Amino acid sequence: MVAADRIYLREAPAKLLPAPVASTGVVGWVRANLFSSPGNIALTIICAALIVWIVPPLLRFFFFDAVWSGADREACLPSAQNPEPGACWAFIRAWSSYFTYGFYPLGERWRVDLFFFLLAFGIAWLAWLGAPRRDIGAIYFFIVLPILSYVLLSGVPIIGLPDVPTSLWGGILVTIVVATVGIVASLPLGILLALGRRSEMPAVRLFSVTFIEFVRGVPLITVLFMASVMLPLFVPDRLAPDKLVRALIGVALFASAYMAEVVRGGLLSIPRGQYEAAQALALPYWRMMALVILPQALRVTLPNIVNTFIGLFKDTTLVFIVGIFDFLRTIEAARGDPHWATPITSVTGYAFAAVFYFVCCYGMSRYSRNVEARLARAHRR
Amino acid sequence: MTNPSSGTDGEKTGWAVEISALNKWYGDFHVLRDINLTVARGERIVICGPSGGGKSTMLRCINRLEDWQRGRVVVDGKDLTDDPKQILAVRRDVGMVFQQFNLFPHLTVLENCTLAPIWVRHMPKKDAEELAMRFLRRVRIPEQAQKYPVRLSGGQQQRVAIARALCMSPNIMLFDEPTSALDPEMVKEVLDTMVELAGDGITMLVVTHEMGFARQVADRIIFMAEGQIVEINEPKAFFEHPQHERTRLFLQQILH
Ligand SMILES: Nc1ncnc2c1ncn2[C@@H]1O[C@H](COP(=O)(O)OP(=O)(O)OP(=O)(O)O)[C@@H](O)[C@H]1O
Ligand SMILES: [Mg+2]
Q1: Could you give the CA distance from residue B122 to residue A297 in angstroms, rounded to a whole number?
Q2: Which end of chain B is less congested by CB atoms within 10 angstroms, N or C?
Q3: Whether residue A4 has pLDDT greater than 80
Q4: Pick from A357, A378, A377, A361: which is nearest to A172 by CA?
Q5: What range defines the domain where residue A317 resides?
Q6: Above 60 in pLDDT, residue A1?
């Protein structure tokens, strides 16, 4: 028998068999993923219980018992038909234009709408990886759009757009402006700082390290205070930028210090051989960085970059500290309105804010997951 | 098969590479000790020697991937000083192939090859692609042009790396153990490519332990140990009558 096993030659191909039933289909999936072991069964039951406990009350609050329309607080008070009213969406509706524009003059609000549209257009152009001429898209987004936005929002009286001082801006407009400027400025600044930190020139390195460590070492609130209170001490009044611009600078600098560390992490993951191959091909430093090193480094660290963006987006709420009416601040202001004073007004306001921030942040997160998956498909086996 | 006479036709404009009194230290460690070497145009040099002997370091000085403390390196008549312009000028004419291939993983094979022609030589994209395809055909992998490097075998990747270097039309090619990271069955395809290249009259400096290749194409073989050039000779003499005790020992080890 042993001798028979020693030499073997297959004479007919082995049969192709279908996979066993229990390992495919819904039953197979449930069994493999939800009930594969006692521990897994326990977790499944706990999660199911949590869902049953949390989800129905939320649905009731947000949808079934919510008040969708009404002229004032009466609508949202407990009544015979609705003894336990849910979210007071009527309040949000009544204040929605304040939440969006702040005190931006009524007659000029089309300018804000146009800005939102132009921004959304730019984001879509860049975010859609299959879009035509994304190079023009980048020029539009990083050069044309900022100029257009400034002209539109701030106004140029000569061409018939009256000045709108930033003190009148507010709500989602301000949140979007602060977040976009922060995000758009922090990536290039962060890249420069990260490269500076690895530079061979001691002065550049020292500056980068000092800046990064200093900014990372203090809270955003401090940076904002410094930007809004200390900056005017050094710059003559006439030249002092306005309050919003100061906050924008503060946010951008703060975010770029964090971004620098994120980018540095990506740079560290690039093997020396990549630098050497690029150098051997006579690529000068900046081209080597732009064409070989950064595309790889940013790809590796994309989840961290988006994570920083998300953090920054939420941090923009802190600008209210220096007296800027961002979205959250407008909700704060509106919830004190006596016309709408009900037990659920504040809750509704905050819930609305939560939904807004969640949708924006989750959108960024989903998008980055998509890009990651796409890159992974393209570059791995 | 060997062609020692081509080692002497350097009359056009001097030497391809001139290294004189080159000394380099890593901290206190004297890694290159008084290296003197001149390489004629079109000459094919094989460099061998024990691990840690400084072969890679010397090779990398020729395109200034390493700098040094003392000595002088002149490539194609250009003195390699600290001047970045001069360094880039030398690198434009010197191609290099690495042990680990070092292809750019985020670019396709074709893009790997066209990157430098487009961004360094300022060639129009179409011309660069034509050029790249010509060299990819020469290394016999034109059908892989649109793939990403990870999808290729080691031997194919190394051939792409050779094509990528050739796309810059270098006068001098440096090879640092181009077959050491390859599975045995792929070594031949890369060596064949290099043998073909050697037939084209391009100046080649090759660090390798493939003695068959050395015998076949080298004009001179250099034996390096402990940071010094111990022996330089023509292949026949090098293998049959090694002069130095150290060389004899080394050859005994790798030829058996
Ligand atoms: N960046 C570095 N810092 C310090 N020592 C180094 C560095 N690079 C190389 N060395 C040392 O210099 C010596 C020569 O290295 P080199 O890579 O030139 O040797 P080699 O002859 O190419 O050897 P191998 O056959 O292993 O590639 C080795 O002892 C190595 O440890
Ligand atoms: Mg080596």
Answers
A1: 25
A2: C
A3: no
A4: A357
A5: 164-380
A6: no
Task: Judge: B102–A281 Cβ closer than 8 Å, yes or no.
Answer: no
Name which of A116, A170, A178 is nearest A148 in CA terms: A116
Which is higher by pLDDT, A8 or B249?
A: B249
Chain B residues near residue A294 by CB distance under 8 angstroms? none
Question: What does pTM read for this prediction?
Answer: 0.84
Assign residue A349 the CATH number of its domain.
1.10.3720.10
Mark yes or no for CB contact B102/A277 under 8 Å. Answer: yes
Number of folded domains that form chain A: 1
Residues of A in contact with B164 (CB under 8 A): 281
Percent of chain A with pLDDT over 70: 95
Average pLDDT value over all residues in chain A: 88
Q: How does DSSP assign A57-91, residue by residue?
A: HHHIIIIIT-B---SSGGGGS--SS-SS---BHHH
Q: How close B147 gets to chain A, by Cα (Å)?
A: 9
Asked if residue A338 belongs to a domain, the reply is yes
- Ligand 1 centroid–CA B237 distance in Å is 28
pLDDT category of residue B2 using cuts at 50, 70 and 90:
very low
CA of B213 from ligand 1 middle (Å) equals: 24
User: What pLDDT digit, counting tens, does each position of B63-91 carry?
Assistant: 999 999 999 999 998 999 889 999 999 99
Question: Is the CB of residue B201 below 6 angstroms from any atom belonging to ligand 1?
Answer: no
Question: B125-138 and B109-119 helices cross at what angle (nearest 10)?
Answer: 130
Give a yes or no: residue A71 inside a domain.
no
Ligand 1 pocket residue status of B54, Cβ below 6 Å? yes
Residue A127 belongs to a domain: no
CA B221/CA B4 separation, integer angstroms: 11
pLDDT digits (tens, 9 = 90+) for B162-219: 999 999 999 999 999 999 999 988 999 999 999 999 988 899 999 999 999 999 999 9
Element (DSSP H or E) covering residue B232:
strand B228-233
CB B31 less than 6 A from any atom of ligand 1: yes
CB contact under 8 A, B91 and A279: yes
Does residue A267 fall inside a structural domain? yes
Separation CA A66–CA A86 (nearest Å): 4
Q: How far does B91 lie from chain A, in Å, by closest CA?
A: 5
pLDDT per residue over A33-88, tens digit each?
A: 888 888 889 999 999 999 999 999 999 988 888 888 888 888 888 888 888 888 88
Residue closest to A310 by CA, chosen among A273, A348, A259, A248? A259
